[in-house]
Amino acid sequence: MLMIDAHLDLAMNALEWNRDLKMPVNSIREREQGMTDKLDRGKGVVSLPALRQGKIGLVVATQIARYVAPGSTLPGWHSPEQAWAQTQGQLAWYRAMVAAGEMKQITDTVTLEKHLQRWEDDALPDEQKPVGFILSLEGADSLVNLSYLEKAYGNGLRALGPAHYGPGRYAPGTGMQGALTPAGVELLREMDALRMILDVTHLTDDGFAQALALYKGPVWASHHNCRALVPHQRQLTDDQLHALIERGAVIGGVLDAWMLTPGWVRGQSDPRKENITLDKLIDHYDHICQIAGNSHHIAIGSDLDGMFGQEQSPWDLDTIADLPKLEQLLRKRGYEKEDVENIFYKNWLRFIRQAWQ
């Protein structure tokens, strides 16, 4: 069964983690043995072959580069121009993967439907099928000014989340409070004119409410779980879930362990000892389905290898190719085949097709 994952930081892993994602996951892990510069060295779970193995034929792939002001403790770039240059390096990597036949950029319904036809062709082995990607910008800091949004759109950018972690030039993000900046309000207007997809992930509560009130176009939450189950500002409240459902949004469930269970301590907690399994994600799915009354608003936005690896992923997931295990777990919880198809690909496809009408 085809799967869609609406949040993967592929280019960040390729450039900042220096991972050759054309290689199998085990080969990437072997090359990182003995490296200690990052917590997840030798523990990555994502590669292009693993995506194909799991039949994850379409992903939302990010560009990401944060601007940091003097005195900030967050990693990032010292000017918006540097951040922009970093995102352009990431774009160059995606284009190199397209040239190599490893990936295929999806920008409209024509390229989408052609890509789906290729993945539905049983005569073609999965390992010969390119991984389709829709380009998304996580955090808008790298847009030097609003004229850069149109440049990015011309390069195929179709979704944008104004915030990430900490202060932002367009919107404060996770760990902060407050509404969009004046530039952020203008950014939403420009995005609306281009009919881009607004990603509310990482917005503050004030920013979330303001964005939904201002934005008229399509809205999704690419990688989010539920605050009722794991109390933290990064999660969605029930009121926010109601608001998203009313807008026809889809919420992508995240597999970062700290968003699956309360009390997780990065660098200390252990997935096996805490019994963090894929089944934990279904707890969050169930919560959203109870609010919605159906399975039309949940899907996958795994965020795997989003600055973490096996040390902060469900212990029953070796690589991203294990995502199809969710089917058996969902059926065990009483989900029907149609529900599984909704979660695996139909909800994202319906949303994208409507957004691109």
Instruction: Average the pLDDT over all residues and give the rounded result.
Output: 97
CATH superfamily: Metal-dependent hydrolases
Assign an overall shape: globular
CATH architecture: Alpha-Beta Barrel
CATH class: Alpha Beta
- Separation, N- and C-terminal Cα atoms: 25 Å
Tally of individual domains? 1
Q: Which structural class should the secondary elements be placed in?
A: alpha/beta
Number of strands: 9
In CATH, the topology is named TIM Barrel
> Topology as H/E string?
EHHHEHEHEHEHEHEHEHEHH
Reported for the largest beta sheet, the result is:
7 strands, parallel
Structural description of this entry:
It is globular and about 45 Å long. The chain has one domain: TIM Barrel (Alpha-Beta Barrel), CATH 3.20.20.140. It is α/β, with parallel strands linked by helices. The strands form two sheets. Strands 1, 2, 3, 4, 5, 6 and 7 form a seven-stranded parallel sheet that branches. A two-stranded parallel ribbon has the order 8-9. It contains twelve helices and nine strands. It starts with a strand and ends with a helix.
List the helices and strands and how they pair.
Blueprint: E1 3-8, H1 10-15, H2 25-31, H3 48-53, E2 56-63, H4 80-99, E3 103-105, H5 109-119, E4 131-138, H6 147-154, E5 157-161, H7 182-194, E6 197-199, H8 205-214, E7 219-220, H9 238-246, E8 251-253, H10 279-292, E9 298-300, H11 325-332, H12 337-355
Parallel strand pairs: 1-2, 2-4, 3-4, 4-5, 5-6, 6-7, 8-9
Structure in a nutshell:
It is built from twelve helices and nine strands. The protein is globular, with a radius of gyration of 19 Å. It is α/β, with parallel strands linked by helices and 357 residues long.
